[in-house]
Amino acid sequence: MSQIGNNIKKLRKVKGLSQQAFADMFNLTRGNISSYEEFRAEPKIAVVLHIAKYFSIPVAELLENQLTVNEILNFEDHFDQTSIKLDSKNLTELPLLNREYLQNSDKVDIKELPNIYFPIYTKHKMLAVEVTNLIPHLVDFPYVEGSVLFFEHVEIDILHTLDTKIGFYLNQNDLFFGSYSVEDKEIKLKLNDWKEETFTQENRQYFWKLYAQFSRV
């Protein structure tokens, strides 16, 4: 059983934070915090990572163990700068487009997105996207709400791999998950019979191809 609800409550008490104050720190609502602490819901993985990073607590400890007051007070010294630098060499920093950002923004600017670190390695630019009903998707879309999908930017050297693959289109406030179709030299990312975008050299910055998936078991 996850201990995240117990640990959020313990963190609040130790740090002297109300539910509202804690919620404000992570762009949540007081209702979100209440539901976590009462085991009516669990935070998305992006929120867990944000909390763990903010309080310098290992993610596994935050999820699996009931933290004590002494542990919480000592976790601030758990990581020294050397270990952080060493660990970060094994991870890739990725912008994360999540539900919270979409709820609070009229258009998406990748440069303004929060970042996460993940063991994904590719020479192409990467983008992490949380699956949410705020982003239109295919009728038979196989990924569940709350999953995080990792996309690589579409470059010339992967054009031949696109046919039938899941893709993501992002142009400010126009975004959707779709399926690629390649016919002769024409490449399209299709959402449905009424919505599709054609890939060209001029607009290729808007097109992404699914690279990997992270989901809670």
From TrEMBL:
Source species: Sphingobacterium bovistauri
UniProt keywords, alphabetically: DNA-binding
Entries under Gene3D superfamilies matching the protein: lambda repressor-like DNA-binding domains (1.10.260.40)
Residue ranges of every copy of the HTH cro/C1-type domain listed in the record: 8-62
SUPFAM superfamilies in alphabetical order: lambda repressor-like DNA-binding domains
Keyword DNA-binding listed: yes
Protein name listed in UniProt: Helix-turn-helix transcriptional regulator
